[in-house]
Amino acid sequence: MAFDGTWKVDRNENYEKFMEKMGINVVKRKLAAHDNLKLIITQEGNKFTVKESSTFRSIEIIFELGVTFNYSLADGTELSGAWALEGDKLVGKFKRLDNGNELNTVREIIGGEMVQTYTYEGVEAKRIFKKE
Hints:
The chain has 132 residues and is mainly beta.
C-alpha cells in the first residue's frame, strides 16, 4: 500500500504554532521540532501497524480503519478517535480527553513524500516525511 515503509521526518511547516495552540510548553516545543521522528507503517487490509520512534519515545500503535482507539501524544496529551481511508488519504479524527477539542490529522503521499497535516483550533501545521 502507498503508506507502507519507513518514513523519516524531513521538515515542518507551522509546527511550532500548532504545538503552542495545543498548550505544549516552550521547552518541549523546541525539543519536539527536532525529534527525529521515524514512522514504520505496515498495512494489512484495514489494519495498520505504526512503529513510531523519536528522541522522546518508541511505541507501536495498531489500529483498524473506522475503529475508535485511545492514543497518547509524546507530551502526554490523551486522545480518542479513529482513522479512515478517504480516497488516497488517511484521515484521523480525534478528540482530546482533557478538553474535548478536536484534533484532525491527514496523511497523504505527495510527490513521493508523506505529508502529515494537523488541524487544531484553527491552526494548521504539516510534517513532511521522506521514505528511507
